[in-house]
Amino acid sequence: MIQEPSDRKFVLAFRLLMAWTFLYSASHQVLNPKFSAAAFLANTKTFHDVYAIFTAPALDPILTFLVSYGHLLIGLSLLVGFMVRVSSLFGVVLILLYWTAHMEWPYIENHNNFIVDYHIVYATVLLFLFAKRGGHVWGLDGWVAALPVVQNNAWLRRLVA
Known about the structure:
Helices cover 66% and strands 6% of the residues. It contains nine helices and three strands, in the order αααααβββαααα. Strands 1-2-3 form a three-stranded antiparallel sheet.
């Protein structure tokens, strides 16, 4: 558990910054009826054959829903500090998938980003929040972890560890 006040402030700052990143992205997806995850994936380069499977018209509504509301749930989880360890891992997976989708090996998005770009930074910050139990720092995870029902259930304890 993090005890240093300055460390706790950084954990909170990172958690809120990542929450904003996911919530802002969700606002453009959930509120935009023209958003299509399949359209985004149709333009991949390095791993086009892998992502082309998900661009099928039948999968588009499902994938779009999962991406849009996945961003929303991850952002809300980070904002209130509830189940941060779970949401941060889902966030890392999502961010790394975007990283590979933006890739034109060895460049990411453009020739200014050689292998490492903001996707890797975001994934690292999310892993930091996972490792430092970011939801226990001014978040609901600390409060929920103290509830008797959670303390008596190993499975629930892992969700808010």
